[in-house]
Each structure stands twice: as structure tokens, then as C-alpha cells.
């Protein structure tokens, strides 16, 4: 999962947001991935068109589960 998500991030530098929601700052994609991997989480691009693009360190499977749950409740 992590490899697929990172392959889609084309930016060299990213503004990174931690799993707790605080801004870590602008860093290289490699540094951001290392930080996410150290926490056992995924690096997900959330604002591709921003300058620099914004990525967040999250548990992607948990995020997908919560989104699916919201959609079911909306029905």
C-alpha cells in the first residue's frame, strides 16, 4: 500500500501534516516517507495543487473505513 501511494506522489517537496494534525513543515518526499514509515503509517497526498503539495501522515486503511462508514450513514 505504501509503495503504491508514494509512486503517485510526483512532487519533490511536500508540506507535511502529522497524524495528530500539526504541521511538520516542508520536507522532501523521501524524508516525509521515512517519517511516516517510522510511525507505521502511510503518507497520503491531500492537496495536490497547493504550492508545495500537502501530504498527511495517516493510517490509510482506517481512513478508507471511516469514509465508507460515513457514506453508509448518509444513505
Give a quick rundown of the structure.
The protein has 75 residues and is of the alpha+beta class. It is 44% helix and 29% strand.
Q: What does this entry look like structurally?
A:
This protein is α+β, with helices and mostly antiparallel strands. 44% of the residues lie in helices and 29% in strands. It has helices spanning 2-8, 29-39, 60-74; strands spanning 13-17, 23-28, 42-47, 54-58. A 4-stranded mixed sheet has the order 2-1-4-3. β1 and β2 form a beta hairpin. The longest helix has 15 residues, at 60-74. The chain is globular. 17% of the residues are buried.
Shape: globular
- Please state roughly what percent of the residues sit in beta strands, choosing from under 5%, 5-15%, 15-25%, 25-35%, 35-45% or over 45%: 25-35%
Helix content: 40-55%
Classification by helices and strands: alpha+beta
Secondary-structure element string: HEEHEEH
Number of helices, where a helix is a run of at least 4 consecutive DSSP H or I residues: 3
Give the beta-strand count: 4
Query: Whole-number average pLDDT?
Result: 88
Rg over alpha carbons: 13 Å
What features would you highlight for this structure?
75 residues; alpha+beta; 29% strand; globular
Topology, element by element:
Layout: H1 2-8, E1 13-17, E2 23-28, H2 29-39, E3 42-47, E4 54-58, H3 60-74
Parallel strand pairs: 1-4
Antiparallel strand pairs: 1-2, 3-4
Amino acid at each position: 500500500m505504501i509503495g503504491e501511494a508514494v509512486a503517485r506522489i510526483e512532487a519533490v517537496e511536500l508540506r507535511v501534516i502529522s497524524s495528530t494534525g500539526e504541521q511538520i513543515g516542508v520536507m522532501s518526499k523521501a524524508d516525509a516517507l521515512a517519517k511516516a514509515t517510522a510511525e507505521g503509517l502511510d503518507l497520503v497526498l491531500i492537496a495536490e495543487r497547493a504550492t508545495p503539495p500537502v501530504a498527511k501522515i495517516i493510517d490509510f486503511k482506517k481512513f478508507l473505513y471511516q469514509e465508507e462508514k460515513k457514506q453508509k450513514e448518509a444513505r
